[in-house]
Amino acid sequence: MAEIEIGMGKSGRRGYSLDEVTIVPSRRTRDADDVDLSWQIDAYQFDVPVIAAAQDGVTSPDSAVELSRLGAVGALHLEGLWCRYADPEKFLAEICDLSPDHAGERLRAIYEAPVDPELIGARIAQIREAGATVCVAVTPARTESLLPHIIKAEPDLLVIQGTVTSAEHVADGAHDPLDLKHLVRRLEVPVIVGGCASYQAALHLMRTGAAGVLVGIGSGTTSTTGTVLGVGNPQATAIADARSARMRHLDETGVYVHVIADGGMTTGGDIAKAIVCGADAVMLGAPLARATDAPGGGAVWSMTAAHRTLPRGLLEHVEPVGTLEQVLFGPSDRADGRSNLMGALRKTMAVTGHGTVKDMQKADLAVVAHPNGIQS
Amino acid sequence: MAEIEIGMGKSGRRGYSLDEVTIVPSRRTRDADDVDLSWQIDAYQFDVPVIAAAQDGVTSPDSAVELSRLGAVGALHLEGLWCRYADPEKFLAEICDLSPDHAGERLRAIYEAPVDPELIGARIAQIREAGATVCVAVTPARTESLLPHIIKAEPDLLVIQGTVTSAEHVADGAHDPLDLKHLVRRLEVPVIVGGCASYQAALHLMRTGAAGVLVGIGSGTTSTTGTVLGVGNPQATAIADARSARMRHLDETGVYVHVIADGGMTTGGDIAKAIVCGADAVMLGAPLARATDAPGGGAVWSMTAAHRTLPRGLLEHVEPVGTLEQVLFGPSDRADGRSNLMGALRKTMAVTGHGTVKDMQKADLAVVAHPNGIQS
Amino acid sequence: MAEIEIGMGKSGRRGYSLDEVTIVPSRRTRDADDVDLSWQIDAYQFDVPVIAAAQDGVTSPDSAVELSRLGAVGALHLEGLWCRYADPEKFLAEICDLSPDHAGERLRAIYEAPVDPELIGARIAQIREAGATVCVAVTPARTESLLPHIIKAEPDLLVIQGTVTSAEHVADGAHDPLDLKHLVRRLEVPVIVGGCASYQAALHLMRTGAAGVLVGIGSGTTSTTGTVLGVGNPQATAIADARSARMRHLDETGVYVHVIADGGMTTGGDIAKAIVCGADAVMLGAPLARATDAPGGGAVWSMTAAHRTLPRGLLEHVEPVGTLEQVLFGPSDRADGRSNLMGALRKTMAVTGHGTVKDMQKADLAVVAHPNGIQS
Amino acid sequence: MAEIEIGMGKSGRRGYSLDEVTIVPSRRTRDADDVDLSWQIDAYQFDVPVIAAAQDGVTSPDSAVELSRLGAVGALHLEGLWCRYADPEKFLAEICDLSPDHAGERLRAIYEAPVDPELIGARIAQIREAGATVCVAVTPARTESLLPHIIKAEPDLLVIQGTVTSAEHVADGAHDPLDLKHLVRRLEVPVIVGGCASYQAALHLMRTGAAGVLVGIGSGTTSTTGTVLGVGNPQATAIADARSARMRHLDETGVYVHVIADGGMTTGGDIAKAIVCGADAVMLGAPLARATDAPGGGAVWSMTAAHRTLPRGLLEHVEPVGTLEQVLFGPSDRADGRSNLMGALRKTMAVTGHGTVKDMQKADLAVVAHPNGIQS
């Protein structure tokens, strides 16, 4: 770990974003047909290593079913509109029409409705009955209170996700903190937990018994965490640090915990870079919100945008690029890399000669000065 | 101190701005309620580690009282309009309406009125009588002449502040230079002195007996010192260097001198970064000028903008974001981090697991390429 | 090879673009008249080290003849419009009028016409009969099927060029991969093969027996490979790595394989930088498309822009700057370096005191932060 | 000399521009009144270390006289309009009205008039008779032919200046190259020679017997040398390298050769940075063209903009900021540092505690990422 002296009394490591790296093809190439994108976590097998983000503009019960049909998986946020309202469609339509500059107030009002435990069960059942893999998400703060309802509904995968989530949460005596170390081992459902952005944080989350760790703080398109809180770590470095934690944890326990890159990816090339840095899979928000059949109708936001006293997210409108199927598998009629994400990933693995996602993690990277790929 | 060879005959150290660092959460988090933001310098205790800048658009007798009520402190500039005019309100209103492009000439005219020693006493009394902590500022050049009037008025804290202030000022025989080394020890009022931006300068200012040192040269929003004079040092490095000077001075003398970061901060995240670099407290100008009850009515400028032969500052208009209370404590209805600065600082300390400002100085930093937080 | 730690689990080398280097004159200068720009590959001698890119907007049978007359050489793409249509002029004219934002669909349609083997023979004959050097290009994927027709037509030089081309292509059992190692040695025509962007890739391509290797992935003006696929390597580093491969291959075999920089150059200064990095010659697309007698009429695009499922290129319109002769040899009436490219290269070699292209490879480079040459 | 590996086959040093450095005040300050800006080269003493550039928009016989009165010196180009035309005023007025985008053709026509040897004598006499220091400039290419006329007219200082000038110029047998080594020692007039931008080039120019060396290639405001030719070296590095050459030459010979930074400076802060890098004086073009009494009427261009086949310069219009006296000595009514350049330099020396230009060369520098001074 090479330290940079920021000043005589403080040092830090250099953090690199995905924009600052590029994948360097080497001596071998491969047919794109000969590339396998499949991903397995716990007992669940997926055709592509993609989780749709637990955001109301990205994952609804319907889009979760469609994503499952396409070989991916969508994480339904159990504190989102689908578990606050029986019929959230009108609110989704309203949000889609909000001006980004003045969305905060209305978002706060819409998200003030309480989470309805009954709806948790109903939404999970709805997805399962359609034959899809059921992946649901909660925040650490609500995990304790919502857990009984979740367990009862028997989802396949549980995501426990906050802006920053740690295995050791300190609280004053007044209330019990969430103890992830005991909680995760107690559950039968495999748990994915995050976000985190450092070796130590990832390692300790892995030690909770989680099946996967979400890597990324403040890296989402709509997040202003970096500006408001000053926290984060550029995504290439965060993933590569988590990869190192995964190796150590595997050495210590024999258990392989998945590193799931969350945020900061726009194109299939970005997904490929995240994998080369060490990701086993990716969680995508804005890239999937561009689908014409995404629930947000082109709007993308996270619940932190609706925070009552310290909002840390924006509402953004993204340009539609086709159906979820086209976004993932093309055909693409545009050269900006925003559709056929999996076709691009497949092609990148082909031109670097790698046949599986795991093998792709060995590709070479170069560090570059110019964002957005290569200049001259 | 790693030196970079600029050319074969000259080397220098790399200086980092606050935009070039980000705070990396680690394995521990904490409840925001369990975070203590208080700050004590000499005998004075504050709820939050914030000094409002000695600028006429930021600190007036009234705003100083309000800031004190909120747990912060405001530094009234004794060479500002409040000590040049009995009724400066009309000038403040006029300045607020000036076009930034042509403000210089009018500012020069308005600031040509002499400082009235009577008003010094009156302003200090006015603040004290309102029950607020009295903090006043002078420039080194005027310190000698104004000091008798200041001492007589008995402020609680005295700020001696110039663009660049050193403990060793060389002057020709014609007039006596200000000898800070003798002056500061002679005074009973605790003194905060600056600006400086290097280890040596900070160390020597500490050795004058000052209670605090202001760190930052050319880092303020409206300053053009970097362009006009070519001097400065990016703020993250300047603070971390001063932190090292504080350690050395503490080791030599047993006296802890406070490092106060001055300028270059816009959000609570920026304040958090300054603290992690080593600051004990921050001096804020433009961020507080955004308050609807700031005396400048949204205009912010420093007196160097009114310099007769070599102006080194601009008049800028900032967008109002709420009352001083909202700027400091929210609630915020915007996601750009410009209000609820202390709520953001509290949250940042929570997500990095630190309970006090002093403890927060131990948090991890990463060095990043992209300004304004994290990109991907 | 200095590795940078991207994160604890992944490292990479720093890659530099041509914009990040500048040529530093040293103690010796030379008359521009005393500079020799000639280049010889295999039995073919050229006055200037320039190959016009195998793009339909750049090289047609007519422009290939004109380029030959001027001492350069043009590579006619045998999968381009001239071998798909007997009279492609109307399609070229139509493409020239397409709006860049909506060109993809029409390009796909135009390029759906099959390649006509008869036309391959006719185009090669047309160029040869005009007395020009015949250089033709194919993609690796079509090489096997088109080769009999190409060999029969007896071109002087054969370019086998894909976005990423390797000496070891892995394919499943269903079809035979192109085995460059056997193919190139079997051919009597000298082969130039690429693109590649790393030491290993270049070395293995050299070992196929190629006369030249094209260096550059995603570096062309219209390429979005870096964005869509995330692959590439900045051009200065890619060329310098290939130079090292050339040295090793020369040491192992005694055979000098030419390094041909492809893409990322706009001015004669850029060409000079590529040479100093190690290039023996350059392949130019957009810079030559600026000629009033270029076949694209000012439009420039590569065939990847017409890809059916994953387009990775744009159509761009470039400003005309004069005839091909003026672009290469001036006189220039503009100070932006876009015409008189060879005059500029000659002048750069003069002010750095180098008499031949090979000698110019020894010039000094500085690494700079600011793109587009020198700032202050 | 720390080398950076650009690629495996080529390395280079990092070059820094003046925008990438900032002057860091240290423990000592000084009264601005107590600062001496004087400069002496050979027998000539100047109040300020400033040479006005040998450009027709900057130095005319009249402005040379005014600059001399102000304590600076102007270099009249003997190949400029004043020695091509008896009455060049109308051409200057016409150039001032040219549109930058289409100035090249007209400039070429205006500069096609031959240099008139008679006018050389007349212009030199005109300046000398006004009591000013006479400094004149020629290009290396014309030095041999114009020298008899120059010597006869007895200027005080002679500048031999080309884009890149070396002590060893190689030419074919057809004509004799300019041999600076013999020429300079043969002359009685002190010679300033350049430009150069490296240690070796500066050292060898010093060994010709020159009194001063101009440092800067492609660093002028209107120069496109960096783009067109790809040559240059960022100015901070070029100056610091020349400083090292000065030390070596002084050690070898006991002779102190002046390093004169040419180009790349806009403000007094930039001039101060150049001095800290190692400059003894500066040559200024665009900053002085901003004077209302500059001969170009606000237009600035170099003769390379009028090159017949390979123009490497632009015509630019700069905003007027006051008389030459105001530009140099103020008072300034603007905060952008473009007037009162010497007042700013004096202030910078004061806040860093340095009393003379020579002493100022010892000040500390920091390397920064953000151009235009300091960000946060």
Question: Mind explaining what this structure looks like?
Answer:
4 copies of one chain form a homotetramer. The first copy, chain A, has helices spanning 61-69, 89-97, 103-110, 117-129, 140-153, 180-186, 199-206, 225-228, 235-253, 268-277, 286-289, 324-329, 341-351, 357-360, and strands at residues 4-7, 10-14, 21-24, 28-30, 39-41, 44-46, 50-52, 73-77, 135-138, 157-161, 168-170, 191-196, 212-215, 258-262, 281-284, 299-300, 316-317, 364-367. In chain A, a hairpin with a 2-residue loop joins strand 1 and strand 2. The first copy, chain A, is globular, with a radius of gyration of 20 Å. The two termini of chain A are 31 Å apart. Chain A contains 14 helices and 18 strands. Helices cover 34% and strands 18% of the residues of chain A. In chain A, helix 1 (61-69) packs parallel to helix 4 (117-129). By secondary structure, chain A is of the alpha/beta class. The first copy, chain A, has an 8-stranded parallel β-barrel with strand order 7-8-9-10-12-13-14-15, surrounded by 5 helices. A two-stranded antiparallel ribbon of chain A has the order 1-2. Chains in contact: A-B, A-C, B-D, C-D. Chains A and B meet through strand 1, strand 2, helix 3, strand 11 and helix 7 of A and strand 3, strand 4, helix 9, helix 10 and helix 13 of B.
Summarize the structure.
The structure is a homotetramer of 376-residue chains. By secondary structure, chain A is an alpha/beta fold. Helices cover 34% and strands 18% of the residues of chain A.
